[in-house]
Specification:
alpha+beta; 36% helix; 134 residues
């Protein structure tokens, strides 16, 4: 039995070291701050140009652009050609033709079956009508 008048002291070696460090303040990570007061190198001033002066050309064409280019050819494009050009599944290409080309872009998409192959094309006469309707 332990006497009741004995109190533990901070020098007691039986205490766990993790208890001592649990209340110690933790240091914050050091972050670097850029010196913004230094002058810019000569000739490195920023130049603002208007949108009409910019000659930005997109470096890559989108899949939508590729499909429309294939469809505007006089011979049109087969479903297999569109699948190879985009990497999409056939049902996704058909959905794009119906939803985006016909409904959203309002382009006159025609479909023609020659022997066992279906060709899709945008009719050139209907393109002018679709542009005027917008």
């Amino acid at each position: 039995m332990k006497p009741s008048n004995v109190q533990p002291t901070s020098l007691d070696k039986s205490t766990n070291n993790s208890e001592k460090t649990a209340h110690a303040p933790q240091s914050k990570p050091v972050t670097k701050v850029r010196n913004r007061s230094s002058p810019r190198a000569p000739g490195k001033t920023s130049k603002v140009t208007s949108a009409s002066q910019r000659t930005h050309k997109p470096t890559t064409r989108s899949k939508q652009d590729n499909i429309i280019t294939l469809l505007r050819r006089p011979e049109g494009a087969t479903l297999d050609a569109l699948v190879r050009a985009t990497g999409w599944q056939p049902h996704s290409v058909r959905g794009f033709l119906a939803g985006t080309v016909r409904k959203r872009l309002k382009l006159p998409l025609t479909s023609e079956k020659v022997k066992d192959t279906r060709f899709y094309r945008i009719s050139p006469a209907g393109v002018a009508k679709a542009r005027r309707a917008r």
